[in-house]
Design brief:
single chain; about 110 residues; mainly alpha; Arc Repressor Mutant, subunit A; globular
């Protein structure tokens, strides 16, 4: 089992909801460099090459579960310029995560 700190679990949850490092830093009141470091540490600990692999591996290991994912909405005023055009829609995010979880379960069944 991979040992993640509480902060790393929070960062992983935010990554699963497609938040950038800048968004994560603002939401968790940490510096952008710290948010990037948490991302790098997660990639290394979970032996993933990219963020998609990180999220897939987290589902495989049971660190992320569709039923216990909690969306964290960042106010538009705190979003980076590149992410301001996106808005959180629970029904869309939930269906994307459900589809991804189904594909992972089918692949490893």
């Amino acid at each position: 089992m991979i040992n993640l700190s509480q902060r790393e679990k929070q960062v992983l949850n935010l990554i699963a909801f497609e938040h950038s490092s800048n968004d994560i830093a603002k939401k968790l009141f940490i510096s952008q460099n710290t948010a990037r470091s948490h991302r790098k540490n997660l990639l290394k600990k979970m032996d993933a090459r990219n963020i998609a692999g990180l999220v897939r591996r987290a589902f495989e290991l049971g660190l992320l579960d569709v039923s216990n994912l909690h969306p964290i909405v960042i106010p538009a005023s705190h979003r980076s310029e590149s992410s301001k055009r996106f808005r959180y829609h629970p029904e869309i995010a939930g269906s994307r995560i459900q589809k991804a979880s189904t594909k992972i379960n089918q692949a490893y069944a």
